[in-house]
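Please decode residue identities from the backbone states below.
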């Protein structure tokens, strides 16, 4: 297995969760009522699973190692874009938390902002994932020897041992009614 395998598995779980987020945005828009518990759950998933666990492996391991290589200008540009997109997602989630907090204190004017931010996240992540999955991850493997790829994969597994995949897989299963994938390696 190559290091992109775990990253792509994580993308599939993130995509499922963002489908639930999009459905919730539509429900809120129709009803005019936000569900603060759902928003907290979605924020927790994005911050811990998508950002810290997934983006953590990308930024702290893959991108760190890619920065040591002589990348083509195109790959360097895409990596920089991906890093900026990670920053953008963190900022968007922060705005969502602020809008939810205003809603909880009685500010009904926060509802359209909550809807817009949920929809933005649901639209943003699939585009971001396609950029990583299709051209970037596959092509960037060529910068590494088989031994380097194996070492990176081992570092991914070690990184994951510190994370709580099971919690978020069960969360998505409970929200979607679908069984999450089986991981390729026991954690």
């Amino acid at each position: 297995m190559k290091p992109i395998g775990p990253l792509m598995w994580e993308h599939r779980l993130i995509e499922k969760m963002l489908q639930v987020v999009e459905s919730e945005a539509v429900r809120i828009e129709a009803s005019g009522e936000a569900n603060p518990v759902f928003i907290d759950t979605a924020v927790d998933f994005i911050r811990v699973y998508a950002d810290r666990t997934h983006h953590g492996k990308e930024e702290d391991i893959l991108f760190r190692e890619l920065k040591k290589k002589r990348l083509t200008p195109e790959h360097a540009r895409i990596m920089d874009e991906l890093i900026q997109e990670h920053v953008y997602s963190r900022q968007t989630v922060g705005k969502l938390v602020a809008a939810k907090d205003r809603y909880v204190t009685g500010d009904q004017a926060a509802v359209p902002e909550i809807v817009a931010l949920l929809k933005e996240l649901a639209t943003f992540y699939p585009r971001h994932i396609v950029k990583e999955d299709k051209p970037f991850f596959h092509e960037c493997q060529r910068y590494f020897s088989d031994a380097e790829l194996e070492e990176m994969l081992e570092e991914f597994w070690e990184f994951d041992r510190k994370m709580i995949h099971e919690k978020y897989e069960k969360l998505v299963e409970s929200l979607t009614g679908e069984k999450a994938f089986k991981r390729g390696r026991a954690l």
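Observation: The chain has one domain: 4-176.
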